[in-house]
Amino acid sequence: MSEPTHDENHGGALGARLNWLRAAVLGANDGIVSTAGLVVGVAGATDDRAALLTAGLAGLLAGSMSMAAGEYVSVSTQRDSEKAALAVEKRELRERPQAELAELTELLERRGLSRQVAREAAVQLTERDALKAHASVELGIDPDELTNPWHAAWASFLAFTAGAMLPLLAMVLPPASWRLTVTVVSVLAALALTGWSSARLGAAGPGRAVLRNVAGGALAMGVTYAAGSLLNAAGV
Ligand SMILES: [Zn+2]
């Protein structure tokens, strides 16, 4: 195993930024693989540039919108459940403040503070902003910075689109005799880069991640190209 990440210890800010960056790299990776598979498959069946452009563009739009919608739904759900948890916390703080103080003390104690220091810290945190303290220590969330579902949706839309542009342009810009080579080479190179980046961002060793990512992309293009060629040979 590689050494564990230290993100948690740096608090939310760095961890959150790394998560965003990692999500962007993975979104771009998705855009590259799915669009490359699509255009290479169509290239197996036809030389028609208009058909390649149409397939690639449709794949880009369908993929980026489906990613955005999925992200919107999942972040909205997460936000709803965080808001519900905060509402419960708020009510408990109002209805049984002593029990909540005891709870916060115990949680701080479990994090390694002595009973006395934990008690003191709990009292001070409660005086300053009880809800924020409980949200952070008990639920691990910052009530002032819940993830915005629209931001998340836009980010994955853009990441996927950026990735999908590569195989699309590599397929439609070069002359017909070069388009397949240019696409395969540039896609595999890009996948080596995204595999390396996501491994580094996750503090994992990059070697195997690069290999897996490149192999996955090569497989996707190989399978769709075979399917396209078969359809072509069958005269469809
Ligand atoms: Zn609480």
UniProtKB/TrEMBL annotation:
* Protein name (database record): Integral membrane protein
Q: What is its main location?
A: membrane
Regions that span the bilayer: 20-43, 50-69, 152-173, 180-199, 214-234
What topology in the membrane does the UniProt record assign? Answer: Multi-pass membrane protein
Which GO MF term does the entry hold, naming one?
manganese ion transmembrane transporter activity
Keyword Plastid included in the entry's annotation: no
Per the UniProt record, the lineage of the source organism begins with: Bacteria, Bacillati, Actinomycetota, Actinomycetes, Kitasatosporales
Q: Which GO terms describe its cellular component?
A: endomembrane system
Tell me the compartments it is located in: Endomembrane system
**Which GO terms of type biological process are on file?**
intracellular manganese ion homeostasis
Q: Which UniProt keywords apply?
A: Membrane, Transmembrane, Transmembrane helix
Q: Which PANTHER family match?
A: FE(2+)/MN(2+) TRANSPORTER PCL1
Is Membrane found in the keyword set? yes
